[in-house]
Amino acid sequence: MNDYRIGDISKQLGLTADTLRYYEKIGLLQNIHRTASGIRIYNDKNISRLKFIQRAQKMNFTLAEIKDLLQMREDPQHARAEVRELSHRKLAEIEIHLQDLTTLRNELTLLVNLCTGSENGCPIIEGIEEGVKKTNKRPRSKLSR
User: Which of 56, 74, 92 is the last residue of a domain?
Assistant: First the structure.
């Protein structure tokens, strides 16, 4: 098993020293060995765990969810239903996000096309302004009508 210092991990995985310290502080990394002078020494198991964290973040899991996944990782057969449920919820969130992004892309495409054909004014600014006005409007209650 190899030993790595915090700078080695930073270079290898693209994580800052502050991030590594934070992961340790919140319990994502545990049992990090230290030298007599307090220097953190990481091993291959820690690297594997960090790669797992990075991959889970790319899948849009929060750090709290990743902490749960790491616990489930220790006994995957017994945690299978929990992992499936957590992943199902994450997939549903991503589907909603994709719908929002598709709507945004369509709106921006329309505004760019309008801008190309516009002789005066700026349809992009006007379109964004329209969106701001719509989001600032609050529904009136029945009492104020």
Answer: 74
Give the separation between CA 124 and CA 110, rounded to whole angstroms. 9
Q: Residue holding tokens 């992943």?
A: 87
Shared domain check, 51 and 97: no
Establish how many alpha carbons lie within 13 A of residue 28's alpha carbon, considering only the half-sphere containing its beta carbon: 23
Q: Which of 61-70, 77-86, 98-107 has the lowest mean pLDDT?
A: 77-86
User: Of the candidates 94, 98, 20, which has an alpha carbon nearest to the alpha carbon of residue 62?
Assistant: 94
Compute the distance between CA of residue 5 and CA of residue 12 in angstroms, rounded to an integer: 11
User: DSSP characters for 106-135?
Assistant: HHHHHHHHHHHH-SSS-HHHHHHHHHHHHH
- φ, ψ of residue 3 to 5 degrees: the values are -110, 140
The answer to whether the beta carbons of residues 71 and 92 sit under 8 Å apart is no
One domain for residues 119 and 68 = no
Residue with tokens 């934070």: 22
Could you tell me the pTM of the whole model? Answer: 0.69
